[in-house]
Amino acid sequence: MAQYFEIKAVNPGYLLFYRMGDFYELFFEDAEVASAALGIVLTKRGTHLGQPIGMCGVPIHAANDYLNKLIKLGHRVAICEQMEDPAEAKKRGSKSVVKRDVVRLVTPGTLTEDDHLDARSSNYLAALSMVRHGETDFALAWADISTGETFVADLTAAELADEMARIDPAELLLTDATRALLTERHLYPPAWLPIATIIETVDSEVAMPLLRQAFAADLFDPTSLSRASRAALGALVGYVGESQKGRRAPLRPPVTEATGTTMAIDAATRSSLEILQTQRGQSKGSLRHAIDLTVTAPGARLLASRLAAPLRDSKAINRRLDAVSRLVDDTLLRARLRTDLKAAPDLARALSRLALERGGPRDLACAGEAIAAALDLAEQLGRQPDLPENLQKLTATLAAAPRDLATELAAALDDDLPLLSRDGGFVRPAYDGRLDEERALGSETRAVVAALQARLMDETDMRSLKIKHNGVLGFFVEVPAAHGAKLLEAPFRETFIHRQTLANCMRFTTTELAELEGRIAQAHGAALDIELSIFTRLREAVLAQTLGLQALADALAELDVTAALAEVSATRAYCRPQVDDSLAFAIMGGRHPVVELMVKTEGQSFVANHADLSGSEGEGGGSLWLVTGPNMGGKSTFLRQNALIAILAQMGCYVPAESAHIGVVDRLFSRVGASDDIAHGRSTFMVEMVETAAILNRATRRSLVVLDEIGRGTATFDGLSIAWAAVEALHETTGCRALFATHFHELTSLAKTLSRVSNVTMKVREWEGEVVFLHEVGPGAADRSYGIQVARLAGLPDPVIARAKQVLDVLEQRSVGTASSKDKASVLDDLPLFAHRPAPAEKAKDVVHEALDTIRPDEMTPREAIEALYHLKKIRDDARRN
Ligand SMILES: Nc1ncnc2c1ncn2[C@@H]1O[C@H](COP(=O)(O)OP(=O)(O)OP(=O)(O)O)[C@@H](O)[C@H]1O
């Protein structure tokens, strides 16, 4: 156990997968944790300090699945391999221990295998640094080591949370000091807890040699970065190097992200707009799910990162729109490109695996296929006249794909490829003369075995004699038990050497068979050696072109995204938005990209609505629309659709509208409903106020603000006053473009005093006492709330509805002109009592219990668990509210 303790001591915080023969074994506490997490048997083996040692194991062939499960549950694993053949160790003495060492640390941010990764999502590892010199500067570095993409950005404390929400890393490295400071300043959100890995140092001086080693000097100069950025990047590179134990991850020269190039969208806005996932954490129902028509996994990853970071530079946005527009107009070209793109595999991830010595023959083939696809696509595009700038650049990158390498790979690799190079069988016949010779020898010996079997049959006069092979005995002669005795006697016993007696048969070997065995093994070994050397040569040839191939992978992903956005735009009647640097926001006939699809599947049509929040510097900024209307009338949908249209336009996509003119939005804020923040002990109202404060403090004239029912979480007059003051501040101080939905009808009088405030309402019609939602936005303010009608639709028991109507009638009739609560109280005192007891209400569905039934605590990661808790609380709150 001494070796185990030594290795365990240098890898604290990791479950140690300790290789013993065909198993990875876990001991002590690790065994208890893993057996509980994986549902495998916990056994005992020997004792330590008088106590039995707990042990559990996973077989090598299934280790990946178990590893995957552990990582998903938030554990970190150190893989410890045998570094020599046990036979070698025996040579040093019968008691000597096989050499072992940790070859890799597996953590959520350092995954490279396909089985562990979602093909259509990036998997970022991020490192945060903090430098103090009077001010506190922060920097964030992040990389996806499965593709090599690397980024770094200098940030202020206030920008940190937004940037983290955009990147959404699987793991965040930071020091304890940084964590403590951020916690103290309330800048450490609960979402970071499950992904944080505390590291000892993040230091710009320590970083320098690491950075020089990781990136080629001609491609990247670390001194060009700030101290904070160097420190963050150094910590990242150091952690990646440590986790890969000497193998060099193919990190690309870091892209320095200047803040201010992308639309700032904070975590609450991302969540409320359901950009990449719904508030319940699902992909279905999100904006990304609705518009992702990419045909490759790298395309899907790029689409997600573009959606997460719409641009601010109108020129860059229009260049993207030009490219999309070209493919919208040319249906045939778009269809052809999309068909060819389907043949392009995930090159970036294959390259990363090859560089980390985890790649196999299929990864090599992947490089060849990607090159071939790129050349086909370049040819298609090359024939087109008047390509816009972005498509021209893509075509040039695709056309530069190394054709020779693809030809070589296609010639060398067989059609049907094994996953691993280990056992050979992947080089195409006729590629290498020597390999063909060794293989022929192998198959010839099979013929020799057949001939030998025939001869031995004749010599022994036994028709049932067979030559067989198994892993234990190698080649052997097998005869039925009844004939075995004959071979044990003269003259046969000279030739046949007894090896085994089973119930039905006896097994023998002969000198000739042993020699033959040697020859076959030799031929197989020689063939395997040749195949492995071919693999190494091809791998080096591919890796020598890493930079060019990574650029090729980028170009393929970008073409996929461009064609996919064109497909969405063309098939769903989206229009090209006019994007410029004005303060316009005029959406004619706008639709919600996700709700529209949902409504359509239900066989209904979506009602398009206009929104015009345009303004100008001269007028004091953009306009603010106050949206009133009943619950279920479509307010939230209208609000969100305009925010989503801004995102789509600025990521370079057409938008669901008849026409759209958008002056670039620098920050987008959306608060549609708020939830409690249990981790910080803040109530719904407190969260709402903190978020409103963030908007009022951070929104600029260029921002787009979408607010739904601010102030609803408190007493009516308090809520109304806060909402009133917020509208005034947005109009007078910020001057941003804003949509403000409210149930406080009193607010609508602001339109009389504030020049850029307009009232709109969601239209409804009453028909035979029922309310019909038209989902149409029209000028004016709602005259009433239709709350009781909506309550009836929601299934409130009839007696309660009837009683509510009575109360409302009395209140409406008698309270005209009465403002004080004392008067209202006397009105209520006069209400007639129920003439009869209300019918017992149907037992209400207990939604919280139902949701609890669907939860499987043992299958959840800590992160999923905290999300589930939030979800439960939300259901409970919703249920109380309704
Ligand atoms: N423009 C539209 N066309 C067709 N259906 C719509 C439209 N807008 C909304 N709907 C439908 O109405 C439902 C309710 O809309 P929404 O949630 O926006 O209402 P709301 O006024 O915000 O209600 P609440 O105040 O209760 O949140 C949507 O789920 C959708 O099915």
Automatic annotation (TrEMBL):
Cited SUPFAM superfamilies: DNA repair protein MutS, domain I (SSF55271), DNA repair protein MutS, domain II (SSF53150), DNA repair protein MutS, domain III (SSF48334), P-loop containing nucleoside triphosphate hydrolases (SSF52540)
Cross-referenced InterPro entries: DNA_mismatch_repair_MutS, DNA_mismatch_repair_MutS-lik_N, DNA_mismatch_repair_MutS/MSH, DNA_mismatch_repair_MutS_C, DNA_mismatch_repair_MutS_clamp, DNA_mismatch_repair_MutS_core, DNA_mismatch_repair_MutS_N, DNA_mismatch_repair_MutS_sf
Positions that bind ATP: 629-636
Assigned keywords, A-Z: ATP-binding, DNA damage, DNA repair, DNA-binding, Nucleotide-binding
Gene3D superfamilies: 1.10.1420.10, 6.10.140.430, DNA repair protein MutS, domain I, MutS, connector domain, P-loop containing nucleotide triphosphate hydrolases
Domain (DNA mismatch repair proteins mutS family): residue spans on this chain: 703-719
Top-rank taxon: Bacteria
SMART domains given in the database record: MUTSac (SM00534), MUTSd (SM00533)
Similarity-based family: Belongs to the DNA mismatch repair MutS family.
Function description: This protein is involved in the repair of mismatches in DNA. It is possible that it carries out the mismatch recognition step. This protein has a weak ATPase activity.
The protein, known as: DNA mismatch repair protein MutS
